[in-house]
Amino acid sequence: xxxxxxxxxxxxxxxxxxxxxxxxxxxxxxxxxxxxxxxxxxxxxxxxxxxxxxxxxxxxxxxxxxxxxxxxxxxxxxxxxxxxxxxxxxxxxxxxxxxxxxxxxxxxxxxxxxxxxxxxxxxxxxxxxxxxxxxxxxxxxxxxxxxxxxxxxxxxxxxxxxxxxxxxxxxxxxxxxxxxxxxxxxxxxxxxxxxxxxxxxxxxxxxxxxxxxxxxxxxxxxxxxxxxxxxxxxxxxxxxxxxxxxxxxxxxxxxxxxxxxxxxxxxxxxxxxxxxxxxxxxxxxxxxxxxxxxxxxxxxxxxxxxxxxxxxxxxxxxxxxxxxxxxxxxxxxxxxxxxxxxxxxxxxxxxxxxxxxxxxxxxxxxxxxxxxxxxxxxxxxxxxxxxxxxxxxxxxxxxxxxxxxxxxxxxxxxxxxxxxxxxxxxxxxxxxxxxxxxxxxxxxxxxxxxxxxxxxxxxxxxxx
Length: 464
What we know:
The protein is α/β, with parallel strands linked by helices. The chain is built from 13 helices and 18 strands.
């Protein structure tokens, strides 16, 4: 491992205070010492020495529309001057109009009536969705979820997240999940096309319902022990794994046969990350519940929520007080969310994202041809993956990617006379995947710049 640039005296004072007063329970200390940043704009952040870093992960896809987006920032500022706060048991215009916008859009796309319920972030909204699902299924607490899936780190959400690391010390809190293989074609059986492998995974799942002795199904009562299947249409922390287009359609057919709800977790891939408002739209299925967060407010406010079918969330079945958060549906968050919808509806935002994603992928494919350690690249919109492997192009190589991430944080690469750093995010089952989530507002020259910086990191990695 290479050494990160030594902290300045001022930064070191702050780091000493952080070491004494701050919990280390979050993810700040994945790189030592942590960087301290002072400002941001567009696709860039600057540290306390005013060193610029091109950010290709944008706060885990929370800042889809660029740092300090003037239009969204102004919506927040205007709301501060009118109705900056109101208790969540009271109504305000923004909550109603944002709910309408999401529900009307879902009706148009899925043909289903539904309602919207807000909370203060993604994990909390997952918790609310678990309440909706358990309530609709007469209290069933067992769920299906995917290997490689990530749904948050609150107690309920971590119970349906496949990594045991997130729940190891805390036990289980009500929910439990049966983790089902995801069609990760690059690491799947050889000799199958991507679509064939998707069908194979569905067929293996369907076997659970062949007889009562497969353990989940009572054929005499037509009852399943599991309430819902939680899916990330594109796996996030799992490494931006993109399934074949036939997969969810075939999976939903099995779920509908056995009365199992499909909950689409759009927290990381929603709001045009994949070129559509919801990533599930690519797969020609009707979800029963959608969970969203992150980019709804472009990271300016921790607002998330769920949309659920009318039958699951109408006031008779999910009455007042079923769940509550003091800051849910707050007017600052809903104001930014409304402006985000207005902004993206004024142009063909999805087409713009798909075109940029295609351009970025072509650049990654060129790098793949020149660097054998790139085993796989793929994309859907501006959710891109680049899997770093050993010289054989297949064996996972976490150490090399860790080296690349730390080199990027040095801030010492030079492109066209400009010194820059590069911020990358690490994901994947083996922590060897660069999960690229650039600003959706990224320019084509900035994409070119990102590719040049990636190339420099790959050269350093292969020559070290």
